[in-house]
Amino acid sequence: MSLDxxxxxxxxxxxxxxxxVGTRIYPTEIPEGNSWPAILYRRPETSRDATFDxxxxxxxxxxxxxxxxxxxxxxxxxNAVMNVLADYRGAxxxxxxxxxxxLDEQDGWDYEKSEIxxxxxxxxxxxxxx
Length: 130
What we know:
This protein is an alpha+beta fold. The chain has one domain (3-129): 2-Layer Sandwich (STM4215-like), CATH 3.30.2000.10. Helix content is 25%, strand content 43%. It has helices at 3-13, 15-21, 71-85, and strands at residues 25-27, 38-48, 58-68, 90-92, 95-110, 118-129. It has a 6-stranded mixed β-sheet with strand order 1-2-3-6-5-4. A hairpin with a 7-residue loop joins strand 5 (95-110) and strand 6 (118-129). The model has no long low-confidence stretch (mean pLDDT 90).
């Protein structure tokens, strides 16, 4: 069971997201020399609230970073990602997402990722899955 595979599957299957980034959807890090726009997703935390009967349902914090060469493009990409993930419930590759809750967003600009500088919008979700 891989939540990472499920997230990539959901994002790449969406026509709007795929139209914006093609296959540039990466876990953990963006390859050097990448073109823009692109999506980076990572899971900084996964926990379980165990009970006497079960090991607990996995609860993951997911951060999705939407990079683009303009602020407007990073916002448009983030909105497309939100349309896919916020409140999603159902199958995602080999996992079942019980709930995907939107938590937070943040904007920024990074001059180290590109010689021209790059705009980003981070989205944070909490995902319950099996």
